[in-house]
């Protein structure tokens, strides 16, 4: 079939149909009646052929692209057919007759993860007919789901979880998404779809660089399509730049058997989280894996720790080893730069000094002469003073040695290249450049043949007739005995000779040889193996050397092309294109031309079987008779092996034209031009004299190395000069000719003067010098930076070791002290406060003598009425309706402050101690009201009980205070007191600033001394004030302690078993130093010896007084006047009130000793006090005044050391609180009772979130009671708490609250230090909290007698009216006449009544 209406003008064949078995088809053809078939005849056969064969096309594009006018695409039947055979083909878009009407389909998204199921897929369709019967989406018939038609879109749901694996198994990750018509049951459209699997990626870079939506969770080390599954927000990686990866490192060299760390630069290194293992380096050495612990300095640096490596064998001197950095066991860090560690052995394959010193300088190998081996400097014994290394001034190897010379014979005329091999033959060419002699003759070393330390190649000079043989002698650098060597072999001078008839051909002796070459010729003679190089020529033709011996030289002749000595040849070499058949069968095709009786031949090059290119042969024409007309050769043809028919082609009109002739530019041969001017070459015969003038020659003109555009006429060539300046040679090429008319000088437009050139040269030279200086300075600075970095790393290592050692020693010492303390506790007991003092300190903090503890202070004439009023009021308080109305009315007042709410709650709970069941009922009602109010106000449920903002919350605190006293005393008190004592003793082991409260040992970053304080521990012998004759008591003191601190430590040592309230006060005692000479001296914080510098006055310390170790001191009652037993002169004493005025406190009285004092200038002199560190807030402090020049954050490691020392005591306290069994004492039922009540309230309000319930309970008990007890142990014990102890207890309390929280603590580099400090412990504490789920033992409520009568004064008339109004409106209050009873109370208590 032939298509004649195609897109191009030519007809196109688009189908060949075999219709008859054999023979031609006759012209007579006829259509069937229905015009669907064509009858075709041959001489023997009649065939019926359909006019179309549409069914052979399987796609719309194939169908409509065939051009068959009968065929179209039936869309919903998905077949190529005639229009009348397509059902409902007249309806729009059901039958396509043009390519642009084919159905197209796109899907969004076009890819999903294999772990995503039931995802909405939106398919955008084009040219799809109406689909009222419905449509299905299928994946290769493995999964089928209904499609929803919305306009031109079809919405489908991706396969379910159980179907995806089967689809991927059957079709891989790229199945076809198809649309199937419900009307026809046929698939009518399809598009590609991808199920991608992120989990196959096991590295961050391959994950985020995949073409799909994959994210890397760097803390879980997995690749996922769902970034929310990553543990931390900061752990999600989307781009390669954020991947943890090693950076390109310089060559990492590690000598074997040497302990050395490997430091690698990186970026985005993750910090292992709680429960995850640290970093490791894995080196795969000769198939075995070696794991080395690694240290992550920060996110951009990791170091493989000090370790030695080795590999087998001495035949490898440097072994590249694969390096992998992992963390948490098998979490690889990407290594895109393919960094490797190069292990090396200095001694491997370096048996001589020269081989050793020529090794890579970065190896730092050297020659140890004592051991006679190549090694590192640290492995060479110190007594061996002769250590040779390349960089040293004496880095020259002695004792060179010659092991071999080749050849050992040579002609006397010289020119022989002698190869000398040996050991220690210099490290640079200049070492041997002029010190080589062979048999007494100078032999000139050649640079190209020199191999440092191993080989010298030199060229022999001419020998004298008297010289016959000798040794090879060399000097390395200098001709001293230790640098000289002589060979053991002799070198001989030989006389070469040839036989008279020396040319041997394969068959017979002859001096003839074929012009084509290739003949093997043997030359005979004597000593023909002498010398190093052989060149054989016959005339001017070389003979290629093959082999030789003493008697023979064998070579192969080359082709001879000797020119005739007659007339010169007329130039040929014009390329000729030749066409023919089977030309590729000829091995050596040639073209020939015969002119004037002489034949000339040139070569041809076969391109393929039908084409070859030949160079025209030249003609021999006498230049004196050369005609300017064309010449024709007498014979012209081709030499194609033995093809005789093509030797002469006389029918070919092959014509030679006269050679073009060029003239020189001028007599000087130099043509001067301006830039852009054309170059004109004059001559003749530049255009061949052909009839019609259409023949042109192919000219090439080069100016220097650059070609130029050429315009040709008969007598001149016009060349557009290229963009050049200066002097250049002009060369014209045409055919096989080359001609140079001379030089062209193109002068620049504005040539520089000589001064300008000199100036530019000088400036360039200065610039180069400056750049070199900058590079040298940069190199030096880089070296200094590297040294600084190494020093810092060493300091970090030392610091880490120091911290670990300090922590270990401190813990051991503290354990000893705590053991002594425990022994003391067993003997004297823990100083618990009595119940009365305990409850008053918790209920009314800061008020030592509360009115509720005192008798009524009213005039006698009113006492009876007031007592009667109080009894009536007590009855009202015991009425639940009145009490609830009373509390609600009070809380509705704007003037009812937070302090007032707390006081009312404490007073009510004090009154109701004897009726705790009633108090509990009231408390539950108030808490229920508080929960309702909290939920109604749309506050977050977790905020309930967070702050004390209501009477109910304070009552709840007091309720736990009453009910948990026994538990505190029997169980939790001992670990709490041990923790307090441990903190106090640990803090006092280091310096504590008495002004700022900062300490060397601390858990709080705010209370840490961030500088190095030099101090010593002294042991003072203190006289017992109760019995001066008893043995002196040793007391550990620091020489940097103030006098007041010394007195407090002495009091702690003397009265360690006495409660704090029964001890003498340090302010009431003086410290007396009893010197060996018998003199006595009163030591004070301030006296006339106190130092003052720049308005700063420093408190006196033991170091100020220079008190030595072992001194005897005593505490004496404070004297009215000071004295000095040495000179009896009066010492000015600073009054206690003056010093105390300098320390101002804020807060309630109960916390006077636990707050940080503020520095206030002395009002008399304007000076500011300081002890160990000056206050940071004062602007006159200069940088560097705080001691160490290191950054202050370096001292944060002390927090870790202190935490490690106190860890056991914190664990003991938390375990006691979180446990349910305590040495026979059951956990009080009050906790279980209150927790059940909170669960009931949560159920009532449909709160089923376990986190909300847990938060309510945490805010109820840990936050409201335990945190208060931990931060304020003085509520439970008779102790003194200073500011540094208070800060440390606050950190422990915060850790306690974090342990009770259900929220996840996401920590980062900006997190508070106290949270980072216990980050790894909090998960363990949380497990303890979860285990405390039930309370097993019963609990019996207990009460104590009321502490005293409640006395209150109600003075606000408006408040009274509001309370009375509330009682009147309440039905139950009205029935019980509560308003009337309250009016009676008011009347009785009124002063005017």
UniProtKB/TrEMBL annotation:
Keyword Glycoprotein listed: yes
Subcellular location: Cell membrane
Alphabetical keyword list: Cell membrane, Coiled coil, Disulfide bond, Glycoprotein, Membrane, Repeat, Signal, Transmembrane, Transmembrane helix
Name the UniProt record assigns to this protein: Sema domain-containing protein
Membrane-crossing segments per the record: 756-778
SUPFAM superfamilies: E set domains (SSF81296), GTPase activation domain, GAP (SSF48350), Plexin repeat (SSF103575), Sema domain (SSF101912)
Species this chain originates from: Malurus cyaneus samueli
Coiled coil feature spans: 782-809
GO CC annotation terms, alphabetical: plasma membrane; semaphorin receptor complex
Sema domain ranges (all copies): 1-51
Family note: Belongs to the plexin family.
Superkingdom of origin organism: Eukaryota
A Pfam entry, by short name: PSI
GO biological process, one term: regulation of cell migration
GO molecular function: semaphorin receptor activity
Annotated membrane topology: Single-pass type I membrane protein
């Amino acid at each position: 079939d032939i298509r004649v209406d195609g897109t191009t003008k030519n007809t196109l064949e688009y189908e060949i149909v075999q219709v008859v078995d054999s023979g031609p088809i006759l012209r007579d053809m006829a259509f069937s009646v229905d015009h669907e078939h064509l009858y075709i005849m041959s001489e023997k056969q009649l065939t019926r052929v359909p006019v179309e064969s549409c069914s052979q096309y399987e796609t719309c594009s194939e169908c409509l692209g065939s051009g068959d006018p009968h065929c179209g695409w039936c869309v919903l039947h998905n077949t190529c057919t005639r229009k009348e055979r397509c059902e409902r083909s007249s309806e729009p878009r059901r039958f396509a007759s043009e390519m642009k009407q084919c159905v197209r389909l796109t899907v969004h998204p076009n890819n999903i993860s294999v772990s995503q199921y039931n995802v909405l897929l939106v398919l955008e369709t084009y040219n799809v007919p109406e689909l009222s019967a419905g449509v299905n989406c299928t994946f290769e018939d493995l999964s089928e789901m209904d499609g929803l038609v919305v306009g031109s879109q079809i919405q489908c749901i991706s396969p379910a979880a159980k179907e995806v694996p089967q689809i991927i198994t059957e079709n891989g990750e790229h199945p076809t998404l198809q649309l199937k018509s419900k009307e026809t049951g046929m698939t009518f459209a399809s598009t590609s779809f991808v199920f991608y699997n992120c989990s196959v990626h096991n590295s961050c870079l391959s994950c985020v660089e995949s073409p799909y939506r994959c994210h890397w969770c760097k803390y879980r080390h997995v690749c996922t399509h769902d970034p929310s599954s990553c543990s931390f927000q900061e752990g999600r990686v989307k781009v390669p730049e954020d991947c943890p990866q090693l950076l390109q490192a310089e060559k990492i060299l590690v000598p074997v058997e040497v302990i050395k760390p490997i430091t690698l630069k990186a970026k985005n290194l993750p910090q292992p989280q709680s429960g995850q293992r640290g970093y490791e380096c894995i080196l795969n050495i000769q198939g075995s894996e070696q794991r080395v612990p690694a240290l992550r300095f920060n996110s951009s640096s990791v170091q493989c720790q000090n370790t030695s490596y080795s590999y087998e064998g001495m035949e490898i001197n440097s072994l590249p080893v694969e390096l992998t950095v992992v963390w948490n066991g098998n979490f690889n860090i990407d290594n895109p730069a393919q960094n490797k560690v190069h292990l090396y052995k200095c001694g491997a394959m370096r048996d001589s000094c020269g081989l050793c010193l020529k090794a890579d300088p970065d190896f730092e190998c050297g020659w140890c002469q004592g051991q006679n081996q190549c090694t590192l400097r640290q492995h060479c014994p110190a007594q061996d003073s002769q250590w040779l290394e390349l960089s040293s001034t004496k880095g020259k190897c002695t004792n060179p040695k010659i092991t071999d010379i080749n050849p050992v014979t040579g002609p006397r005329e010289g020119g022989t290249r002698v190869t000398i091999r040996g050991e220690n033959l210099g490290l640079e060419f200049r070492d041997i450049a002029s010190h080589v002699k062979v048999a007494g003759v100078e032999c000139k070393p050649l640079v190209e043949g020199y191999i440092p330390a191993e080989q010298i190649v030199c060229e022999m000079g001419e020998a004298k007739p008297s010289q016959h043989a000798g040794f090879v002698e060399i000097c390395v650098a200098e001709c001293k005995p230790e640098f000289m060597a002589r060979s053991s072999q002799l070198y001989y001078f030989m006389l070469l000779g040839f036989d008279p008839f020396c040319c041997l051909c394969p068959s017979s002796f002859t001096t003839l040889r074929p012009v084509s070459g290739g003949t093997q010729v043997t030359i005979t003679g004597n000593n023909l193996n002498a010398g190093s190089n052989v060149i054989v020529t016959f005339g001017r033709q070389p003979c290629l050397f093959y082999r030789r011996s003493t008697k023979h030289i064998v070579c192969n002749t080359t082709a001879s092309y000797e020119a005739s000595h007659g007339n010169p040849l007329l130039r040929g070499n014009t390329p000729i294109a030749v066409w023919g058949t089977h030309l590729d069968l000829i091995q050596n095709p040639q073209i020939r031309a015969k002119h004037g009786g002489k034949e000339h031949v040139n070569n041809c090059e076969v391109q393929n079987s039908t084409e070859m290119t030949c160079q025209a042969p030249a003609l021999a024409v006498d230049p004196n008779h050369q005609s300017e007309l064309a010449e024709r050769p007498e014979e012209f043809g081709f030499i194609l092996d033995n093809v005789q028919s093509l030797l002469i082609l006389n029918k070919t009109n092959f014509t030679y034209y006269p050679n073009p002739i060029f003239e020189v530019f001028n007599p000087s041969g130099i043509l001067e031009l301006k830039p852009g001017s054309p170059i004109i070459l004059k001559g003749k015969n530049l255009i061949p004299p052909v009839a019609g003038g259409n023949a042109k020659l192919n000219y090439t003109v080069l100016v220097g190395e650059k070609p130029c555009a050429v315009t040709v006429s008969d007598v001149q060539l016009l060349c557009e000069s290229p963009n050049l300046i200066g002097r250049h040679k002009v060369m014209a090429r045409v055919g096989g000719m080359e001609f140079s008319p001379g030089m062209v000088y193109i002068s620049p437009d504005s040539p520089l003067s000589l001064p300008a050139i000199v100036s530019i040269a000088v400036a360039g030279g200065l610039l180069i010098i400056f750049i070199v200086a900058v590079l040298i300075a940069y190199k030096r600075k880089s070296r200094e930076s590297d040294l600084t970095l190494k020093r810092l790393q060493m300091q970090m290592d030392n610091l880490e070791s120091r911290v670990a050692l300090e922590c270990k020693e401190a813990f051991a010492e503290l354990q000893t002290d705590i053991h002594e303390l425990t022994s003391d506790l067993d003997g004297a007991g823990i100083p618990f406060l009595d119940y009365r003092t305990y409850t008053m300190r918790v209920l009314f903090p800061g008020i030592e003598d509360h009115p509720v503890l005192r008798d009524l202070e009213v005039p006698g004439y009113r006492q009876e009425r007031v007592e009667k009023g109080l009894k009536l009021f007590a009855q009202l308080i015991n009425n639940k309706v009145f009490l609830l109305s009373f509390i609600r009315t009070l809380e509705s007042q704007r003037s009812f402050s937070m302090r007032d709410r707390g006081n009312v709650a404490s007073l009510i709970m004090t009154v109701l101690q004897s009726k705790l069941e009633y108090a509990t009922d009231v408390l539950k009602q108030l808490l229920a009201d508080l929960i309702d109010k909290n939920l109604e106000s749309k506050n977050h449920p977790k905020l309930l009980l967070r702050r004390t903002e209501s009477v109910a919350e304070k009552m709840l605190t007091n309720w736990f205070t009453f009910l948990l006293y026994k538990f505190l005393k029997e169980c939790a008190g001992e670990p709490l007191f041990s923790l307090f004592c441990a903190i106090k003793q640990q803090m006092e082991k280091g310096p504590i600033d008495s002004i700022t409260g900062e300490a060397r040992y601390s858990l709080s970053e705010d209370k840490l001394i961030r500088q190095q304080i030099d101090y010593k521990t002294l042991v003072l012998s203190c006289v017992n004030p109760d019995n001066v004759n008893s043995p002196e008591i040793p007391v550990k003191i620091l020489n940097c302690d103030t006098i007041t601190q010394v007195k407090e430590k002495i009091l702690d040592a003397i009265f360690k078993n006495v409660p704090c309230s029964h001890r003498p006060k340090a302010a009431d005692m003086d410290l007396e130093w009893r010197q060996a000479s018998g003199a006595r001296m009163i030591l004070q914080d301030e006296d006339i010896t106190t130092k003052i510098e720049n308005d700063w006055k420093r408190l006196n310390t033991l170091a100020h007084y220079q008190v030595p170790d072992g001194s005897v001191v005593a505490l004496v009652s404070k004297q009215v006047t000071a004295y000095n037993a040495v000179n009896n002169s009066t010492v000015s004493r600073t009054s206690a009130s003056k010093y105390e005025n300098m320390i101002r406190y804020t807060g309630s009285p109960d916390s006077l000793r636990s707050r940080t004092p503020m520095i206030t200038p002395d009002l008399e002199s304007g000076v500011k006090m300081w002890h160990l560190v000056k206050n940071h807030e004062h602007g006159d402090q200069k940088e560097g005044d705080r001691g160490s020049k290191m950054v202050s954050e370096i001292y944060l490691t002390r927090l870790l050391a202190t935490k490690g020392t106190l860890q056991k005591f914190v664990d003991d306290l938390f375990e006691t609180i979180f446990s349910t069994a305590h040495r026979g004492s059951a956990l009080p039922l009050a906790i279980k009772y209150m927790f059940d009540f909170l669960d009931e309230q949560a159920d009532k309000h449909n709160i089923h979130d376990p986190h909300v319930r847990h938060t309510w309970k945490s805010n109820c008990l840990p936050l409201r009671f335990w945190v208060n007890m931990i931060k304020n142990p003085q509520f439970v014990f008779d102790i003194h708490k200073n500011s540094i102890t208070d800060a440390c207890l606050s950190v422990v309390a915060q850790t306690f609250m974090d342990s009770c929280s259900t929220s996840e603590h996401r920590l980062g580099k900006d997190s508070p230090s106290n949270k980072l400090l216990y980050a790894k412990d909090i998960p363990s504490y949380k497990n303890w909290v979860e285990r405390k789920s039930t309370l097993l033992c019963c609990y019996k409520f207990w009460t104590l007698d009321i502490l005293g009568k409640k006395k209150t004064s109600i003075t606000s008339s408006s408040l009274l009216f509001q309370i009375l109004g509330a009682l009147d409106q309440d039905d139950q209050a009205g029935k019980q006449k509560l308003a009337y009873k309250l009016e009676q109370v008011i009347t009785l208590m009124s002063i005017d009544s």
